[in-house]
Structure formats: structure tokens, C-alpha cells
Amino acid sequence: GEVLKNLNKFYKRKEIQRLGAENGLDARLFHQAFISFRKYIMESTSVSADLHIILNDICCGAGKGFVLLGHVDDLFPFFLRHAKQIFPMLDCMDDLRKISDLRLPPNWYPDARAIQRKIIFHAGPTNSGKTYHAIQRFLSAKSGIYCGPLKLLAHEIFQKSNDANVPCDLVTGEERVFANEDARQAPHVACTIEMCSTNTPYEVAVIDEIQMIRDPARGWAWTRALLGLCAEEIHVCGEPAAIDLVTELMYTTGEEVEVRNYKRLTPLTVLDYALESLDNLRPGDCIVCFSKNDIYSVSRQIEARGLECAVIYGSLPPGTKLEQAKKFNDPDDPCKILVATDAIGMGLNLCIRRIIFNSIVKPTVNEKGEKEIDSITTSQALQIAGRAGRFGSSFKEGEVTTMHREDLAQLKGILSDAVPPVKAAGLHPTPEQIEMFAYHLPDATLSNLIDIFVSLSQVDGMYFVCNIDDFKFLADMIQHIPLNLRSRYVFCTAPLNRKEPFVCTTLLKFARQFSRNEPLTFDWLCRHTKWPLAAPKNIKELVHLEAVHDVFDLYLWLSYRFMDMFPDAALVRDIQKKLDDIIQIGVCNITKLIRASQSAAAAGTAEVVSEDFPLSSTQKDARVLSDQHGAASTDALSVAVEAAALRRGKSSRGSRLGGRQEELKSYGRGSLANRLLREGLLTQEMLRQLESEWQDQHRNGRYGFGSKRDDQHSSKETRKKRK
């Protein structure tokens, strides 16, 4: 007890914490080191003689009041020795700090610093022609590179260039298409921004959607392109909110920024009334939802009214998205309504008359990687609303409204707010930096190396280190597989959705096969994905087909990094096109799939529905409602209600289970139900099903609410009603 008391006294002393900081132990490392040191002393059967003597002197001196015998500060050398055993980087802290110093990113790109670049910022809202003017300069140049956030955008510029007789290659993570038949590199290239080359010289470079430089996960790619592209002219397109940051960044490189402002080409009106009912839909309407469950629910309700609708959401393959967009845009096609997520915000040309927000709250991930659910930002609202009334389409004016009357005032407020300025640009550790860390810390795992790098990294106020949770997730997942560091790093940067178990499991199989030096052949892939696959019969099968499409994407992505080990890219691309056609069939029959899924659910088969975005705990609880039956339904509803209440600062945990009966009865009519419906946490169909189930269960006495006397009284009432 005396030893423990003195150890805790040692931990709390400010002088010891200061000494720890001087030796590389920040508050977090100091705490972890102390916990380990204390455990070592308290649980070891014996300690070294010198440490034993010091502890004895401290305890004896403290017990008898003789300070000179020993002082807790005397433990510091032993503590530091222990800390260096569990944190080896303390011995080479100066070197590691130099490697992780991110305060001068412009110096990482000597080729770009060797030339004087001209920076032109095309600033304006959606549908203002800013990107059009930049692309015209791109087409007229002797050589050029277009960098966009999506494969669809890169593909569109690739198509436009070649249609205009300007040979242009296409480069994405999963695809290389050459304009020249002999596979010679064309002077122009359209690519996704992560794939741009900072070594190749160009006359003109176009960086699209520059405001994404603040993105918590992908912002580093825009920073790299802006600072590193070796082009005489850099044309930057995006929101005016990014002008100040781009100007400041270019000041550090000694380059000036010319700003060209654009205004929207067609008028956009926020209506004074909400849609309120799907009976009020008109041709050219697009309902924007922020969850797949809402997409499924709304599309079924629309088709129940005898209307055809197209469906677009994030996890659909690009080919399917284009086909759905083509179907919606075709004036001769009976499909005149679109149901979509915010995936329509960029990358698709759509003839939309009116945007209708089904909800104005959206799940997001903040800079710390934490899941949140909050109102959409002004930037997001403007990006989506701006899709209405596109210049050159059949609708010369755009309109925006909400599905629910209660949301309209809030949407107007969001759209009228100024977009907050972009404050910082993202950065990400490079493979070279991680390799240098590994040289100093040969026994550390890749996940630990990343953790140490981020904790030691220094950035100035214009930059931030991007969220690396996905990278660490994959690093931990494949840690047990023997791979060299560079290969391990590449596998961890693979673009996949970690909420897709099938895709993650397949990556694990890829890594294991790769580690054995056994090529991943076409036959191997077909065997593991059970190709060929049939058209989906329900939503669960459609979601699985989307996951298989992601697996094919993953194979193609790896095939460009390890060509010998993933040799059958051409064959995989062929079957991926066939799979795209199968998914299109499923999406065209989506209401039939929903009906089949609900029939299966009614028979006791739970449907698992993947999401395009990270789920908050509230949404997970709400989704349980559509999957579970019986008593679990009522309980899950209560959990969802409590989570929603907690988010608003009002906990409903104090309510008794018995009180939930009356709550459930009123959900179909009360304001809470409206709020949950508005936020996309529940659907009308789910509420009706829950109320019906509750009534059945209450009649059957399944919950045992109330006393025996109440049950007897209820039985008498029932008998009277039957008579």
C-alpha cells in the first residue's frame, strides 16, 4: 500500500511530468508509460536490486518522516528506463521529429518549385460555368492534366477531349485507357486526383472541386496536386470559400493567384411551400435522401402511385449510375422522377426541374473520425440544390423545397447562410516517411508507426493531418500476414468501404495469397466470388452484388500496383461489365426487390442493408426496427427514441418500460414520430408495422405489463367484446 501511494505521488508531481516531456513523453505517452511502470512494480515477484533499495528508502523515509532517506523523484531514472523499453522511439526522438515535421509541404515538390507557375482560381456556385472555362483552356493547350474527385468526372473529361479531337488518356485507381492504339502516352490526361503525377510537366493543369482540400479523409490529395503539379498554368475550380486559403498557400510558394468570379447561369428559387405528399410530384422532380432505407421506401411509394422512378446512390457502380441518369434525362422515357442520395451533387449531368429534400439531417464523420448526425451544411445544401435547372437542360429555372413543411424554414436558413471559409488543407504521411520511421523502429507494427507519426507530427496553422482510421483498420486487419513494409502500406491504402464485411474479407484473402507469392488468377477470383452470379431476387442480394463489384474494383486497383501478382485485369474488367448489367437489372426492378425483402422479413428472415456512409448509433438502433420482430421491436424503438432524445439533451432513460405502451400508440401521430420520420430514422411503413405488432403482442399478453388484476380485467373486457 505504501509503494502504491508513493508511485501515485510520483505520477502527480509537476516536476516529473516536465522531465517526461523533455524526454519525449507527452501527456498521453507519460500516462501510458506510468500505468505500465506501476503494473511492473506492483505485479512483479521481484525487481532489480537498485530499484528495490530506492523503493525501500522512499517508503521508510515517508513512514518515519525522514525525507533524506529517499524521495519519489529518485524513481525517475527507473521510470524513464522502463518507458524506453515500451516506447523504443524515445531513444531516437530527435530523428523521428525531423521525419514527421510537416510544416513545409511546398518543399516536398522540388520540380514544381523549379518553375514559376501561374495560378487561376475559377470561383462560383454550381452551374456557373467555372469548370467549363477551365476545360476550354485545357483543350486548347499543347498538354494538360485534369484532376477530379470522381471517376465519373474524369471519364466525362476523357470523353469530351477525345470527341473534340484532343487525344486524352484516362487514369483512375482501377483503370488505364489510352487514346492512342499503340498505348503511347497522349499529351492530355484526365484522372482522379489521387492518381495525378507530380513529376510529369504539363502546359495546363485543372484541379476541380478545390474546396475538398478540407476533406477529413481525402483533403491531402488536393494539397498534393495544388503544391506539386508541374504545370505552367494551374486552373483551380471551386467554391469562393477556398479563395483565401489557396491564396495563402500560394504565398508560401511565391506564386500569385488570379481570381475569376462566376455567377449562376440560371435562376434558382427556394419555394414557399413543401411537397408534403408524393401525390404532388411533377416530371423532373428529384427527391434527395440521405440513407438507402429512405431510397427504398420512397421509390416504392412512388411506384405504388403508378409512376416510374430512377434511383442513384453512392455504392452503385458508375455504369449503373450513368444508365439511371440517362433513363431519367431521356424525354422519351416514361421515367420522370429521380430518387437519389447526395451522390448527385457532382459527377452526373441531370435534367432536374425541382430538388426536394426528404430530410435535412445527414450522418457525417468529423475530423477526429467520430460519427455524428447533424443538419447538412450550407456547402452541401448549395451543391445539391444547384443541380436543379442546369444550364443547357430542358428546364431553364431551378426550384428547391423540402418534403416536410417543418423543414422548409430551416432549409431556407441554411441556403441563405454564407459558406464558412476553408481554413486548412489536409496532409497524409508518405510511404517514404513511414519507411524512415520503420528503420528507427523495426519492431513496431504499421498501425503503431502511423500512431507515433501522427502524435509527433508538427503542422502549421494552414494544414491538418487527415483522418487515418481506415488506414489503421486495414493495417490491424492484415498485421498477422507476413508482408514487406511497402506492400503492406499499399494494401492499407486500398480504396474500400470497411463497413462491407465481404470486401474486407476478400482483401484479407488477397493479402494472404500475395504473401505466399501465389498469383491471384481469374479462376481464383471467380471461385471466391462464386461467379457467375444471377440477377438479385431481393435487396440483400442486390447489396451483395454491389459488394462483389467493389471486390472487382479492388482487384483492378491492386493489378496496377502488383501486375505480376494480379495478372488477369482484362478478364476481370470484362466480368465487371457483365456484373454492372446485372446490377442495373436489379435497380430497375428495385420495388420488386423491396417487396421480396419485406416478404422474407415477414417470414422471419432479417435483411441486412449496407449504408453508403458511417452510421450513428441512433440510425443503427432505428434500422433494427425494420429487421427485428416481436418484443425486440418495441424495445429497439425505445432505444432509438432515447438516442434521439439524448442527442437533443433530453434523456428518456428514466421512463419505465410499462410507460412505453402509450408512447408507441402515439408515435404514428405525435411530433416525435414526425421528427424521426423527417430525419430519416423511421419510415411510415415501419411505424405502421410496429404499431400492428405491439397491438398483437399486447393482445397476446406477451409483455406482461400491469398486474394480474389488470390482466383479469382485460380478459373480462375481451370476453364482453367477443359476446
UniProtKB/TrEMBL annotation:
The principal localisation class reads mitochondrion
MF terms (GO), sorted A to Z: ATP binding; hydrolase activity; RNA helicase activity
Q: Which domain of life is it from?
A: Eukaryota
Enzyme class, top EC level, equals hydrolase
Localization, per the record, is: Mitochondrion
List all Basic and acidic residues biased stretches. Answer: 707-717
Glycoprotein among keywords: no
Region Disordered: which residues? Answer: 693-723
Keyword Hydrolase listed? The answer is yes
As cofactor, the record names: Mn(2+); Mg(2+)
E.C. number: 3.6.4.13
Q: Which UniProt keywords apply?
A: ATP-binding, Helicase, Hydrolase, Mitochondrion, Nucleotide-binding, Transit peptide
| Listed InterPro entries | DEXQc_SUV3 (IPR055206), Helicase_C-like (IPR001650), P-loop_NTPase (IPR027417), RNA-DNA_Helicase (IPR050699), SUV3_C (IPR022192), Suv3_C_1 (IPR041082), Suv3_DEXQc (IPR044774), Suv3_N (IPR041453)
* Residues covered by the Helicase C-terminal domain: 270-438
The record's Gene Ontology biological-process terms are: mitochondrial RNA 3'-end processing
Annotated GO CC locations:
mitochondrial degradosome
What is catalyzed by this enzyme? Answer: ATP + H2O = ADP + phosphate + H(+)
The UniProt similarity line reads:
Belongs to the helicase family.
PANTHER family, per database record: ATP-DEPENDENT RNA AND DNA HELICASE, ATP-DEPENDENT RNA HELICASE SUPV3L1, MITOCHONDRIAL-RELATED
Q: What is this protein called?
A: ATP-dependent RNA helicase SUPV3L1, mitochondrial
